[in-house]
Design a protein that fits this description.
flat; 181 residues; single chain
Length: 181
Amino acid sequence: MSILIGVGIVTTVTTFYLGRKGWQAFHKAVGISPGVLTYHDYDAPLSLATLNWQRLTLNKQHLKNLSEQQLRQLKRIDEKMNSYHAYQTALHNQYKTPAITEAQFVLNKMLQTRLPEMLATHYQLTNTSSVSSKKRLEGNELLQSVLDNIEKRLDRLLAQMDEEQLQELRVMKRYINSHDS
């Protein structure tokens, strides 16, 4: 009788252990991690302390005087830049080296050099007490127009990437269909 109870306990423990390992292996295979889901309120005000940039290298000191809308726009630009970089990395991993267009070069220069410079200049303008409110307002408008321009350029570049990928799929489909006959 004690042997039967011992075998039952060993079988139960083994079943739970293998079930748990199988459950973890299943989650790893499909690319998710089991755990508690966290809710992100995307409408909550952004905090400079918790704001992390994926691709942009910006001085957090220069972001202090920006409006909530401008911070959100910078976050969107950063996310779009990350998508663009992921596409470039995927091409590189496929051993394809695309030629960099003038638009890509200019956008890269704007994001890496000109945007941090403009944010620094805007910060200096808004922190100087001798500057009139009219000049501060003009500085905000100029910064906003630059952010809008960068975001439009990124949108066009991402749309161009999508179109290129779609065109590649069309070519492959035509190639495969041409060999069916």
